[in-house]
Amino acid sequence: MELNAENLPWEEAPCDWCGSDQASLVFEGPDRLQGLPGIFRLVRCDGCGLYRQNPRLAWDGLQHYYPDDYISHARLVQHEGGFLRRLDKRYGPWKRLRAIEQLQPGGRMLEVGSGTGQYLEEALRTGRWVVEGVEPSQRAASYTQKHLHIPVHQALFSQVDLPESSYDVVVFWNVFEHLYHPIGDLRKARCLLKPGGWLVIGLPNVESWEQRIFGKYWVGWDQPRHLYLFPQSRLRSILEAEGFRYERARCLSTSYSVLYSSLDFWSQTWSDRHPRLRQAMLRLYRTILVRALLVLPLWALDRLKLGTVITIFAQKNISADGKLQE
């Protein structure tokens, strides 16, 4: 049966932080990543400045926009052929893990939205971590359990019953923006962490240079899957209000691959008129020469915290009692 967004369940969504239903339209646009049907509406809260989709697809509808070939459902490194391919695929998870181990050298870690386990696979290699995942996709959760032999709770994070004050680290790698109620899930993560435990959130950086250049074609908007996006200053104030000590922000993920997606989305607008030119531009971008030329400027932008993906590190206050806030 052909997917029709108009026949799927939709819902109105007031701001999850300040509760306001007053917002200004940013833009309307299609699903540029998967090319699935529908036009989706991004707004900016007039009360606190958070970006959100409103109206948005309810989960029964939105799950159709996470097909089996979705980016977080790629296969594990152990199933990749070729040494260089495996090494390249390991680099991102290794870099993320190294950043965490500068603050917490090991312990018990929970990944929310673990996909097919690519990050948890890297954490297991060290022998310093006891890992666990939460993943709503049955296919992805089963794949991870089968090949990594670790617990993966197949459900939305808000629905999982987990022991309080049990984890040294809770991570949201490119997941926080997908949550229907990120503030409630943030409080749940705080409850699950031990006092002094670490919360790590990697999410699109709405203050990035790429967003400023590409506007509505920026890959970070990713409609209809990205339900909330957070200016850095507002996310910091939310974390501090919810019992965390903000530690630092870093751009860990390479901007090279995500820049390709923004170029792809932008060039879709003239693909009918100049298809060969578009294909040539995208092929040129993926050459070793262009990648080498971009290494230094992209590194500098990441150091300035202007990369497309920003990672926030925050510590649960030592005095926190671990109880969920109402």
Radius of gyration: 20 Å
The level 1 CATH classification of the largest domain is Alpha Beta
What's the end-to-end separation, in Å?
A: 41 Å
Question: What is the averaged pLDDT score?
Answer: 91
Strand segment tally:
13
CATH superfamily of the largest domain: Vaccinia Virus protein VP39
> What is the CATH-assigned architecture of the largest domain?
3-Layer(aba) Sandwich
Largest sheet: 7 strands, mixed
The CATH topology label of the largest domain is: Rossmann fold
Helix content: 25-40%
> Uncertain spans, ≥5 residues at pLDDT below 50?
320-326
Which shape, going by the Cα principal axes?
globular
Strand order of the largest sheet: 8-7-6-9-10-13-12
Order of helices and strands: EEEEEHHEHEHEEHEHEHEHHHE
Number of domains: 3
Beta-strand content: 15-25%
How many DSSP H or I helices? Answer: 10
Structural class: alpha/beta
How would you describe this protein?
The structure is a single chain. By secondary structure, the protein is an alpha/beta fold. The chain folds into three domains: 5-65, N-terminal domain of TfIIb, CATH 2.20.25; 71-254 and 309-316, Rossmann fold, CATH 3.40.50.150; 258-295, no CATH class. Helix content is 34%, strand content 22%. The protein contains ten helices and 13 strands. Helix 2 packs across helix 3. The radius of gyration is 20 Å and the shape is globular. The termini are far apart. 38% of the residues are buried.
Summarize this structure briefly.
34% of the residues lie in helices and 22% in strands.
Helix and strand topology:
Blueprint lengths: L9 E2 L11 E8 L8 E7 L5 E3 L2 E2 L1 H4 L20 H19 L5 E6 L5 H9 L2 E6 L3 H11 L3 E2 L13 E7 L8 H11 E12 L4 H6 L13 E2 L2 H10 L2 E7 L4 H13 L7 H11 L2 H16 L5 E8 L10
Parallel strand pairs: 6-7, 6-9, 7-8, 9-10
Antiparallel strand pairs: 1-5, 2-3, 3-4, 4-11, 10-13, 12-13
Helix pairs in contact: 2-3
